[in-house]
Design brief:
423 residues, 2 domains, Urease, subunit C, domain 1, four-stranded parallel β-sheet
Length: 423
């Protein structure tokens, strides 16, 4: 296949072409040539338009599909389709499934079902069997079968002795240990962020301290075990400061934030729309400002989609009993652009989707240079568009951004000599 990107601004600090507007010719999965007014003879597809930019392929570090066992929420194919629509060439799939992704056969199942797709599946193996936080899973076997990291999903390991043992074991694996931080007892029964809004609405709150107390614990454990800990789903001001201090001490800690937590606040829950119910909960503006500062100064390394599809029966009920989570792969980039354009440069935002996730997950770092493999995301950062049901490739529609006007559009992804165009 031959693909020509016409008059596209290159965003890749590792490329000598960074910041230049050039044509890129891709042939048989490799970048054939980069220059001005390249010949389109024999080209199968020409991608051109207003405000086109290109970067190395985006990597999402956390999305939940539900396959196996919960394919009615999302199966592997529909989840990868949603990832392609959102501009991602790789997506890390959480171990939240039924049964959980907690052994080598489950890892192989994910990889087998993802074969041939333009988007690469990156399985995350469970840290504990069944995500139950009782017994450690066979992490080495899962890594050997293709797991890129381990995570306990959104189930905090409350047993500190077990968490420490997992970290000590994980040090020998040389891969990231994800940590989701929320104290079970402090968060029990909570429906939203604890603050002025939950008092006004009469909903039980989840305090920021529920996150921060576990972040503090796991920073101590990371120091003790000397292991690389990745704090996923960071949402509070206190967590940002704790991680900032840990990095200043030289600890091997990294962190990520869901894109929608940068865009939406707890005030969005005022109409009791279950589409705004997420875990962790949306915080208030003070916390969001701290998250933005953390992204700007490098405390927060990556932006994740935290894609969590829910079927109609699980979502569209009373707010108190609705399942948390939103479909987010298709809108993660737009949420980041809208919320961060006044704080970070475009290159800094793209770094949170590209080189930083690859470093944390020990993935190859592609470059936009002649002769390199073409793993690319084409996007238009200033295009205004409306997210409608026609844009949804997920099996579920639980997004608070449906029918909302957004800025920043993923246009196409190129990977493994395949092309996906967002129509």
């Amino acid at each position: 296949m031959q693909i020509l990107l016409r008059a596209t601004k290159i965003i890749d600090p590792n490329s000598k072409h960074n910041g230049k507007v050039l044509d890129i010719l891709i042939k048989d999965g490799k970048i054939e040539s980069i220059g001005n007014n390249l010949d389109a003879t024999g080209v199968d597809e020409v991608i051109e338009g207003d405000d086109l930019h290109v970067s190395t392929g985006w990597v999402d570090m956390y999305a939940t599909f539900g396959d196996p066992g919960r394919e009615y929420k999302e199966d592997i194919e529909s989840g990868l389709n949603a990832a392609a629509q959102g501009g991602f060439t790789k997506v890390a799939i959480s171990p939240e499934a039924e049964p959980a992704i907690d052994d080598k056969s489950a890892i192989r199942y994910i990889l087998k079902k993802a074969e041939g797709h333009v988007v690469d599946a990156l399985p995350l193996g469970a840290i504990t069997k069944g995500l139950a936080g009782v017994e450690m899973a066979e992490m080495f076997d899962m890594q050997d079968s293709g797991a890129v990291a381990v995570s306990n999903g959104k189930h905090t390991i409350e047993n500190t002795k077990l968490q420490n043992l997992a970290y000590l074991y994980g040090k020998n694996l040389n891969m990231a240990m994800y940590s989701f931080c929320e104290d079970e007892q402090m968060a029990a029964g909570g429906q939203m962020h604890e603050g002025e809004m939950n008092t006004t609405l009469g909903l039980k709150g989840i305090p920021a301290l529920a996150e921060e107390i576990k972040v503090a614990r796991d920073i101590y454990l990371a120091e003790y075990s000397d292991v690389a800990v990745h704090f996923s789903h960071i949402t509070t001001k206190g967590s940002v400061e704790l991680i900032r201090q840990a990095k200043a001490k030289g600890l091997k800690v990294t962190s990520s934030v869901p894109a929608h937590h940068l865009l939406l606040t707890d005030e969005s829950i005022s109409e009791f729309d279950p589409n705004f119910k997420v875990s962790p909960p949306f915080r208030n503006q003070e916390h969001i400002n701290a998250l933005k500062e953390g992204l700007a100064d490098g405390t927060i390394d990556a932006i994740i989609s935290d894609h969590e599809p829910q079927e109609i029966e699980a979502k569209f009920s009373e707010f108190g009993i609705a399942e948390p989570g939103i479909t987010a792969l298709e809108t993660a980039f737009s949420a980041a652009i809208e919320s961060l354009s006044d704080k970070l440069s475009l290159e800094q935002i793209i770094q949170k989707f590209t080189s930083n996730p690859r470093k944390i997950l020990n993935l190859n770092q592609p470059k936009i240079e002649e002769g390199e493999e073409a793993e690319l995301t084409v996007f238009a950062p200033t295009i205004v568009w409306t997210y409608t049901k026609e844009d949804v490739k997920s099996r579920s529609y639980n997004s608070p951004l449906l029918d909302r006007e957004l800025t920043g559009l993923p246009v196409a992804v190129i990977n493994k000599d395949q092309l996906y165009v967002n129509h």
